[in-house]
C-alpha cells in the first residue's frame, strides 16, 4: 500500500514559518513512528500570483483533488491589497473549498488548562473546555439567489436569500453525527426555526437523519440566539454543535474567544468520501497571514500543528497519534513555553516559532 499523501500549501506571511514546524513533525512521524507521508509542496495565494499570475494554478487544484489531505498555512498580505478581486490571494482558498466541495467546517474550541486565564471568561467556565462547532460551509445566505442591490420605487434594496436544500442539510448533519460517535455521542443543532423557514426544514431534516441513522447519539435543538448566550454562559454543556453557514460563522468566532489566542486555533474542512473512503479534506489554522509579525520568528506554530493533529485524526485514522501530538502541546504549555502571543499582561520572555517547534518535538 502506498503512503498517505499530503499536499502542503504554506502560502503567504507567517504561513511558511508555522508550516516549517509542521514539516519537522511530519518528518518525525516518518522516522520515529513509522508513519511516512508522501508530501508534495505547492503555492497558493499571493506567492502563487507572483509566480503564475493566479492565486491557484490549475495543476495545484488538480493535485488537491488527488491527495488524501491538504494542509494550508495562510494567504494574503498588504502587498496584494490592490489586486483585482478575481486574483486576490483569498480567491485561491475559496476555489479550493468550492471545487473540493468542502461543506463541513470543523472548528474545535479547546481550552488548554495552562492558558485558561487567557479566556475572556472566568477560568472555571472554560478550563478543560473541549467542544466542536460544525458549520455548513458551501450554502445558505452567503450563496443563495436572488441576491444583489436594486432599486424599488425611490430607494435601494439589498437582498440576500437564505436557502437550504434537504440534501445540503442532511450531509452536514451526518458529518456532525459521525463526529459525535468519535467523541461523546452528543449533538446540539442550532437554527432559528421560530422565525425562518430554512430553520424549520433544518430541524426536520436533522431530526429525521437522527431517527433513521444515528439514534444512538443524543440530539438536542436550540435556537441560535439562545445558543450564543449559552456558549458564553456555560460552554461545557455542549460537545458537538451543528449549524448553518451564517450562524456557524458567528458562533465559531465567539467560541474561539473562549479559548484565548488566535495562534492556538486549528480547523478542518471536510467533503464527501473519496474512493478510498477518506473524506476530501483541507486543514488550516484559523489565523491569517499576520503581516505585522511576518519574518520575525514570533509566530505561534501551535494552530498549524493542531491542524495537522486534526488531519491525523480525521483523514488518517490515527486518533492515538493525534492524542500524542496534542498531549505534547499540552505538556510544553504546562511547562511554561510561550510564544509572544501567549504572554499575558504580566509579560515574561517569549520563545521563537522554531523554539516552540523544538519543545513540542522534544515532548
Ligand atoms: P485574515 O484577513 O487573513 O483573516 P486578519 O488580519 O484577520 O487576517 P491575522 O492575520 O490572523 O488576522 O492576524 C490578526 C492578529 O493576530 C495579528 O496581530 C497577528 O499578528 C496575530 N496573529 C495571528 N496569527 C498568529 C500566530 N500564529 N501567532 C502569533 N500571532 C498571531
Ligand atoms: Mg480575519
From TrEMBL:
Keyword Oxidoreductase found: yes
Cofactors that this protein relies on: Mn(2+); Mg(2+)
Sorted UniProt keywords: Amino-acid biosynthesis, Branched-chain amino acid biosynthesis, Cytoplasm, Leucine biosynthesis, Magnesium, Manganese, Metal-binding, NAD, Oxidoreductase
InterPro entries linked: IsoCit/isopropylmalate_DH_CS (IPR019818), IsoPropMal-DH-like_dom (IPR024084), Isopropylmalate_DH (IPR004429)
Residues annotated as binding substrate: 97, 107, 135, 225
Entry protein name: 3-isopropylmalate dehydrogenase
UniProt cofactor note: Binds 1 Mg(2+) or Mn(2+) ion per subunit.
PROSITE patterns according to UniProt: IDH_IMDH (PS00470)
Residues that, per the record, bind NAD(+): 77-90, 288-300
Isopropylmalate dehydrogenase-like domain: residues covered: 5-360
PANTHER family documented for this protein: 3-ISOPROPYLMALATE DEHYDROGENASE (PTHR42979:SF1)
Residue numbers binding Mg(2+): 225, 249, 253
SUPFAM superfamilies found in the cross-reference section: Isocitrate/Isopropylmalate dehydrogenase-like
EC number: 1.1.1.85
GO biological process: L-leucine biosynthetic process
Amino acid at each position: 500500500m502506498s503512503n498517505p499523501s499530503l499536499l502542503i500549501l504554506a502560502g503567504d506571511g507567517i504561513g511558511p514559518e508555522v508550516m516549517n514546524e509542521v514539516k519537522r513533525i511530519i518528518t518525525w512521524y516518518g522516522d520515529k513512528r513509522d508513519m511516512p507521508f508522501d508530501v508534495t509542496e505547492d503555492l497558493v495565494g499571493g506567492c502563487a500570483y507572483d509566480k503564475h499570475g493566479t492565486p491557484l494554478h490549475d495543476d495545484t487544484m488538480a493535485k488537491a483533488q488527488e491527495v488524501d489531505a491538504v494542509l494550508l498555512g495562510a494567504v494574503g498580505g498588504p502587498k496584494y491589497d490592490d489586486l483585482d478581486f478575481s486574483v486576490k490571494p483569498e480567491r485561491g482558498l475559496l476555489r479550493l473549498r468550492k471545487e473540493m466541495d468542502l461543506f463541513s467546517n470543523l472548528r474545535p474550541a479547546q481550552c488548554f488548562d495552562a492558558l485558561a486565564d487567557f479566556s475572556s471568561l472566568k477560568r472555571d467556565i472554560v478550563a478543560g473546555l473541549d467542544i466542536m462547532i460544525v458549520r455548513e460551509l458551501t450554502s445558505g445566505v452567503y450563496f443563495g439567489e436572488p441576491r444583489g442591490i436594486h432599486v424599488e420605487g425611490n430607494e435601494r434594496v439589498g437582498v440576500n436569500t437564505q436557502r437550504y436544500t434537504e440534501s445540503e442539510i442532511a450531509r452536514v448533519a451526518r458529518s456532525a453525527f459521525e463526529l459525535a460517535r468519535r467523541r461523546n455521542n452528543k449533538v446540539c443543532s442550532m437554527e432559528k426555526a421560530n422565525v425562518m423557514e430554512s430553520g424549520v426544514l433544518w430541524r426536520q431534516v436533522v431530526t429525521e437523519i437522527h431517527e433513521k441513522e444515528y439514534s444512538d447519539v443524543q440530539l438536542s435543538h436550540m435556537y441560535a440566539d439562545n445558543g450564543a448566550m449559552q456558549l458564553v454562559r456555560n460552554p461545557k454543556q455542549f460537545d458537538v454543535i451543528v449549524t448553518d453557514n451564517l450562524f456557524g460563522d458567528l458562533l465559531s468566532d465567539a467560541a474561539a474567544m473562549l479559548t484565548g489566542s488566535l495562534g492556538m486555533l486549528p480547523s478542518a474542512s471536510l467533503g464527501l468520501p473519496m474512493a478510498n473512503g477518506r473524506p476530501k479534506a483541507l486543514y488550516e489554522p484559523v489565523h491569517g497571514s499576520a503581516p505585522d509579525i511576518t519574518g520575525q520568528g514570533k509566530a505561534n506554530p501551535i494552530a498549524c500543528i493542531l491542524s495537522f493533529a486534526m488531519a491525523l485524526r480525521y483523514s488518517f485514522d490515527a486518533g492515538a497519534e493525534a492524542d500524542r501530538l496534542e498531549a505534547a502541546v499540552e505538556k510544553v504549555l504546562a511547562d511554561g513555553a510561550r510564544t509572544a502571543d501567549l504572554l499575558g499582561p504580566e509579560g515574561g520572555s517569549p520563545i521563537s516559532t522554531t523554539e516552540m517547534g523544538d519543545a513540542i518535538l522534544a515532548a
